[in-house]
Amino acid sequence: MRLSGYLAILTTAVSSCSALLAFPGAEGFGAQATGGRGGSVYVVTNLNDSGSGSFRDAVSQSGRIVVFAVGGLITISSRIVVSSRVTIAGQTAPGQGITVYGNGVSYSGADNTITRYIRYRMGKTGDSGKDAITIANGANMIFDHVSVSWGRDENFSINGDVSNITISDSLIAQGLETHSCGGLIQTDGGVSIIRTLYIDNKTRNPKVKGVNEFVNNVVYNWGGGGGYIAGDSDGPSYANILNNIFISGPSTSVSPFTRGNANFHTYVSQNYYDPDRDGTLNGWVFSQSTENYSGVDFQANKYNYPTVKTLLSPTDALAKVKASAGASKSRDRIDTYLVNTELGSLGKVGALISDPLVAPMNGPGPITGGTAPVDTDKDGIPDAYETAHGTNPNVNDSANIASNGYANIENYINSLVP
Ligand SMILES: *[C@@H]1O[C@H](CO)[C@@H](O)[C@H](O)[C@H]1NC(C)=O
Ligand SMILES: *[C@@H]1O[C@H](CO)[C@@H](O)[C@H](O)[C@H]1NC(C)=O
Ligand SMILES: *[C@@H]1O[C@H](CO)[C@@H](O)[C@H](O)[C@H]1NC(C)=O
Ligand SMILES: *[C@@H]1O[C@H](CO)[C@@H](O)[C@H](O)[C@H]1NC(C)=O
Fold it and tell me: Would you indicate the residue range of the signal peptide (predicted)?
């Protein structure tokens, strides 16, 4: 009796521990990613491409929570490879935060990563045929408030043996001609795309196959390939497509949903479409017709996926995305242009770009660097926060686990954003 009671308590403790969210409010298939919790803290102290104190060095080892004592542009000459069990807390960077510019970032095989409030922009000089973010295999990753642009193959590609991924409150923009794709999302392991803006891509905004939930997203100015490409192959897919908003722009020539077939099983609700490019929001909710949804197989019931705590109406989703998608703690010039000038025009403005270094984008900078708050023990948590929250500003204690299950540094980084 006593033993089983003890076991019951143990089991409860273990399951409540494993249920800890990546951060408070994390949602979707990747919500339980643990990142670098239980490992050490690495403070990025310079904007160098490599070497001690660089972002590349920070993510090169497993078991790290990466914070930033600098803000600005990190120009990289080769692809950065992120290790397993890494948390990247871009919201800690002073000034306008961090933009990584150049060859893209690989998360292939990087199990258990948490990535927040950072911008990944490919260069025109980036390897041809490379994606801004690539995930070919791996499980349990969450990308939240991440801005991704200028990939040369896909802007954000998830393709292969990949499970439990969330992309939430992010901004995925402007693949470079000639391929110009928002992202190939192709896995049976579960991908949630939530409150994310897909803007200015010819095709694959995203192209989805497998297990997917697509909830409260905004897709703006897609091109000839379609806004949401449903499978386009023989493999079966099972998707919830809930309360998204599709707004045509100057480059848009086709209806939002394309290339569906009977293997694409989907539950749909309240997807709003504004096709007329007249600068006002005056569309309608798609009727559940085969034509409107490009021949998918409609399901009567929602798939039992993690979903969101609060399902917004499509027009509320638009407002939310405008206010906070991407690395929005401090939006840079690029995201501000995309959100205010392009999306804000409701159909009138949308750029085809082949070179991000010329107008209207004019390159990835400038990014204001700012000044980091004083951190005497250099453990990543500023003195003022430590003093106010009962940790020791003179002792390296940021990686210690607090009573709520998060590391001290996580409680700090989570306090910086809504
Ligand atoms: C960063 O790069 C600069 C110049 O490229 C160099 O002077 C400096 O030593 C580097 N810093 C570190 C920590 O390697
Ligand atoms: C994905 O998440 C589910 C639910 O948390 C879990 O049971 C499963 O093991 C995860 N898959 C992988 C490959 O980690
Ligand atoms: C799509 O939905 C709209 C609104 O319900 C409806 O008016 C229109 O006829 C539909 N188009 C097609 C091709 O079914
Ligand atoms: C803090 O301690 C961890 C190990 O507990 C270590 O990895 C890290 O380098 C230390 N940081 C500083 C600034 O000493």
Answer: 1-19
